[in-house]
Amino acid sequence: MKKYQLNLGEKKIIKDQGLLQFEEIKRQIRILPELEQLIPPLLTDEHQQLEQNIIREGCREALLIWQTTEEIIKIDNKSTHTVYVLIDGHNRYSICMKHGIDFKIHLISFNTLYDVRQYMIDNQLGRRNLTPEQVSYLRGMKYLTEKKEKGKYERLDHKGQNVLYDVEAGAISVGMEENDHKGQNVLYGTEVVSTSEKLGKRFNVSEKTIKRDAEFASGLEKLEPNLKSEILSGQTKINKTLIQQVGKSVISNSPLATVDEIEQAVKVSIESKKEIAKPVKESPKNILIRQLAELTKQLQQTGTVSICDEIIRCASKLKKLDK
Q1: Positive or negative, the Cα torsion across 88, 91, 94, 98?
Q2: SS3 of 143, please?
Q3: Predicted TM-score (pTM) above 0.90
Q4: Which of 24, 120, 168, 292 counts the highest number of beta carbons within 10 A?
Q5: Are 184 and 196 in contact (CB under 8 A)?
């Protein structure tokens, strides 16, 4: 209980839980994939050790459950039916269900799904056994989550790009531009700083690192869940830059399922960018037509007679090309 109270800050665990029908609640626990993916996977030996500990000692640490409604979690926009969503203890829950081991729960109240995501990311980043890739993914998800929330506020309030938002409002805009626009800045103490700068200060890294983290997280979100889990757990080795390239690229709607598919998607993306970057060579005829149009426009605007000679010369060259 103390652990959750410390991590949740001003959030309060729902009191008088002894009066609730805990056994019935346990049977109704729901797992949301979009929240479960925020839990970095355990390495094989770590999962085995946790499983052995629970089998031997029981599940000593309570699972944290969000008591909410279907309307809040976007399942049914009009339903006020109560649901119980698991937000901490996914590995322990799966092990307990596998072996029929009892477990304790604590109920907690959050106002929005955004609040829950922020809590889960912060909670995971506070753990010590994360790999560098897992830390990068979580920082990137925090950046993307805050930017998405900022974009929602902008659409709802119809505010201009130069409006400043309070940090506590979670004000970050959607997108991963090279530089944060003014509308993506937030108040940070007495300074106005970009999202990436704010998070960089918080995690003691550079703005560029935060943006690379966002590319990495965005790339992982375009993969099949199993492949994403294998990469984050270290079971599948792949150059991080490739994942970042996927994050910056527009790929098909189908999630990438193998390392080969990732490499192919990056190759196609790079080649398509090269094609776009190639300058279009203008034909001599098109050059003359454009020049003729510009000269005619100048004549109409200025009435300068000398331009007529230029028009005649240009038209003569164009006529020769048509022969």
Answers
A1: negative
A2: helix
A3: no
A4: 120
A5: no
| 55 neighbors 106 (Cβ within 8 angstroms) | no
| pLDDT of amino acid 318 | 78
Pairing status of strand 105-108 against strand 63-69: parallel
Among residues of the chain, what percentage have pLDDT more than 70?
76
**For 195-274, where are the E strands, in sequence order?**
none
Name 65's bridge partners: 86, 107
Distance, in Å, from the CA atom of 288 to the CA atom of 312, rounded to the nearest integer, reads 12
φ/ψ of residue 16, rounded to 5: 55, 40
3-state secondary structure of 92: helix
Q: Token pair for residue 292? A: 């003729």
- Give the CA distances from residue 86 to residues 21, 128, 235, 293, in Å, rounded to whole numbers and listed in that order: 17, 22, 26, 68
Backbone angles phi, psi at 200, to 5 degrees: -60, -45
Token output for 170: 């979670």
Residues of the chain with pLDDT under 70: 1-20, 75-77, 151-192, 252, 273-281, 323
Q: How far apart are CA 184 and CA 161, in angstroms?
A: 8
In sequence order, what are the residues at sequence separation of 6 or more whose Cβ sits closer than 8 angstroms to the Cβ of residue 23?
none
How confident is the model at residue 26, as a pLDDT?
92
Task: Catalogue all structural domains in the chain, each as residue range(s) with its CATH number.
Answer: 1-113 (3.90.1530), 284-322 (no CATH)
User: Rounded to a whole number, what is the distance in angstroms from the first to the last CA of the chain?
Assistant: 90
Which residue reads 């979690």 in tokens? 73
CA-CA distance, 267 to 259, in Å (whole number)?
Answer: 12
Give residue-wise pLDDT tens across range 167-198.
333 333 233 444 444 444 555 555 567 888 99
Residues facing 83 on adjacent strands: 68
